[in-house]
Amino acid sequence: MVTDPIADFLSQIRNGYLAKKPLVVVYYSKMKEQLAKILIEKGYIKSSKVKSRQLKHNKGEHTILEIELKYTDEKPAVESIKRISSPGRKIYVDAMHIPTVLSGYGIAILSTSKGLMTNKQAKKQKIGGEVICHIS
Question: Least CB-packed of 11, 58, 100, 115 within 10 Å?
């Protein structure tokens, strides 16, 4: 049982890059799908696909998210990926205190009242929220 599915999602991406894997498979959730869309948009991963997978011993199915990792000259597109908020310690910021990552070269992903967005989008719309992670 995973107590923090978002931290597990980010760890699987990080570990996939460290192991130089072309593809990472994680259990599906809407939040993970939205995180993957932001990572694709910002050029940190190539693509993501929602698929249904048959269970081995049961007759049921579960939904997965296949994430294709991105490399440039065999270097990973992601150097650092760090979970900021956790289920036991939520980190909220207002519009005036949205963090910058690596002097603007990285991104922070925030969960706002208007959905998940990057720190730059949140600053532009002048809304704060929960800081999910930093990526560079």
Answer: 58
